[in-house]
Design goal:
mainly beta; four-stranded antiparallel beta sheet
């Protein structure tokens, strides 16, 4: 199970941090799973935002968030985070965390999904 949290309403330019905690039998091997974040804005398809390898040594970002968002993980807490800075109106979306065995699969077609958390950026 993946439990995302941290969404909310913020003004443009502000920061927000999302977290996604992994638990349950499915994630007994969380520490070897790659994790990622996707988002879906109203009327748009879900898109990849950021991904991180199991060790945290490799990360990948969508061009739209590079330099503003940072993904990191704490394997001791079975949690992955998304630090979002300099938020823009177009960052408004429901954010989902996801997991799979490799960063490549996380970026394209992850197997495991958490429920979404809504981020709303206002002007």
């Amino acid at each position: 199970q993946l439990q995302a949290s941290g969404g909310g309403l913020v003004q443009a330019g502000a920061s927000l941090s999302l977290s996604c905690a992994a638990s349950g039998r499915t994630f007994s091997s969380y520490s070897t799973a790659s994790m990622g974040w996707f988002r879906q804005a109203p009327g748009k398809e879900r898109e990849f935002v950021a991904g991180i390898s199991w060790s945290g040594g490799s990360t990948y970002y969508a061009d739209s968030v590079k330099g503003r968002f940072t993904i990191y993980r704490d394997n001791a807490k079975n949690t992955v985070y998304l630090q979002m800075n300099s938020l823009k109106l177009e960052d408004t979306a429901v954010y989902y965390c996801a997991a799979d065995s490799s960063l490549g699969r996380v970026r394209t077609q992850p197997t495991y999904w958490g429920q979404g958390t809504l981020v709303t950026v206002s002007s």
